[in-house]
């Protein structure tokens, strides 16, 4: 049955004070000249529902908060939202004592633990599972979910929409989401059918993508995948064989190296011994040189040469003649016996140094010969045992590297073939699943075939309302079965004038409300807000007659639908216009009017 969504009261807080407006009537008409706040008033209904509003200059400067009191499926609630601070939060308040019961997010926020006001409204309307069934994650394809904003677009015909074409679905809706929402609320599809349809659309898109990718890859492939696989198998086998042989030779090399370790250790020890012998030989030669110079100095006759400089202060002593047998510095007489002893001691030291030098030279020669012999033996062992192994290892390393390079090259050549194979498998799986989903859709359509009567009934009611309006030119207005939007005989609504277009759009929304009132077989909330139909129709004589017929027929139709049902269904119609056409008194009495003037605008 139709869902009860009824506006009872709107409270506006501004810098000029507080204004409370009574909406608790089935038909409410808000009228007044331009720039008095008519559209702002219906925006004040939208705003606390968490929906976006582009405020005009005056309300944006003076409004501070808006509260709307609603009746939803028999339950009274109130929603309040600030326009100046924390505009992303909506307060769910008690309509009885005004206390805040819960803070809600106006729109979904990441990592927020609060509920979203639109989801709360769907839950109160009993439409949560219809719009987001537990079995569905991607409801409109690509993970998109239906929202309260997309449902509310069916209840509010704004100024832009009332004169629109396909835009009559509202900015919140795409063509796909609008059709889905209409089918859901009218019972033309159910949640399972919607999930199947979304899955079919996703699979169709996936299949198309897979086909394009396989075609693209196939265009650039050369050679046979089977031949490449065979060559890759051979290359991998060669790589494994060369690696095995290489590891074996390296093992043999390690064994041969280990066997030659004693020789290397011996060579190292002899190198140390020979090095020490060489150092000792150098030291002996240096000592021999010192001894030879000492002998020379001892054998030199004192006083034969002048002393040029003092060895202490370096002052010149030129011209000083040293007598024979005297000291060259102090000119004292030397002891000839001491001189002979000094010569003998120097000669004895020279003999000892010569003996040490001979012995050191001999030891150095012997260690050198032993080292040369050990090195020759190590080189011979290396030449006979490890040399051939090193050559073989070098050859096998080159062969293994070549095989590995060929394997890598073949794998790169095979990668697109393998990707193509995976894509083909995925394509076959997606096509198979798509066939299954389409079969399930056909089965589900058969089960839902009886509901097509609903669409026929809506078309009949639409034709009846259009017929009562006597539209000029008889444009042949109808409901398109594919988009579920209004069309005319010539095609889009842009083919007819503004006045006729507005009348068709209003009649189209009237049809949904009429269907809800007459049959109740709909989940559409029975609230309809129409903004400025008279303004969009025009002010000519024929335009005035058309808007009068539109109002009269609308009110008559609502009254007739309400009176023709055994149980009165809850509903509310809110009309916004610049002024009211001439209407019979009984129709005027059906409306609760809210007049706005330039002296009494909406925002005080």
Automatic annotation (TrEMBL):
Coiled-coil regions listed in the entry: 420-447
Domain of life, source organism: Bacteria
Gene3D superfamilies: P-loop containing nucleotide triphosphate hydrolases
Zinc among keywords: no
Record's keyword terms, sorted: Coiled coil
InterPro entries hit by this protein: P-loop_NTPase, Rad50/SbcC_AAA
Residue ranges of every copy of the Rad50/SbcC-type AAA domain listed in the record: 19-49
Name assigned to this protein: Rad50/SbcC-type AAA domain-containing protein
Native organism: Streptomyces graminofaciens
Taxonomic path: Bacteria, Bacillati, Actinomycetota, Actinomycetes, Kitasatosporales
